[in-house]
Write a structure and sequence with these properties.
By secondary structure, the chain is mainly beta. Helix content is 0%, strand content 53%.
Length: 118
């Protein structure tokens, strides 16, 4: 599967953004998908994930209650709705996919920049 993220940009603290990630290739619905991010000078970190059927989601503690991950298998697209954004959310966001739940995130999109002004 190939992934293409979009929707990043500049937003003020407290604002919202929605990231999208379009997938190409077959069997998108077979993959668990999610988001990672890398802030300047920091390690890459897990943000959120959603199971192949959308039934199960997981979030990093830092984004719980503010971010929502979802997917539309018919459109081969996943989303990350980000609300109440903080300066600390500034990062490059990557969409990812894995074929085996709990396994290696083997597929990565190119990243989209999110900048939250303080």
């Amino acid at each position: 599967v190939q992934l293409q993220a979009s929707g990043g940009g500049l937003v003020q603290t407290g604002g919202s953004l929605r990231l999208s990630c379009a997938a190409s290739g077959r069997a998108f619905s077979a993959y668990s998908v999610g988001w990672f991010r890398r802030a300047p000078g920091k390690e890459r970190e897990f943000v959120a994930s959603v199971s192949w059927d959308g039934a199960t989601t997981n979030y990093a503690d830092s984004v719980k209650g503010r971010f929502a991950v979802s997917r539309d298998n018919a459109k081969k697209t996943m989303y990350l709705q980000m609300n109440s954004l903080k300066h600390a959310d500034t990062a490059v966001y990557y969409c990812v996919a894995q074929l085996l739940p709990g396994g290696h995130w083997g597929y990565w999109g190119q990243g989209t920049q999110v900048t939250v002004s303080s």
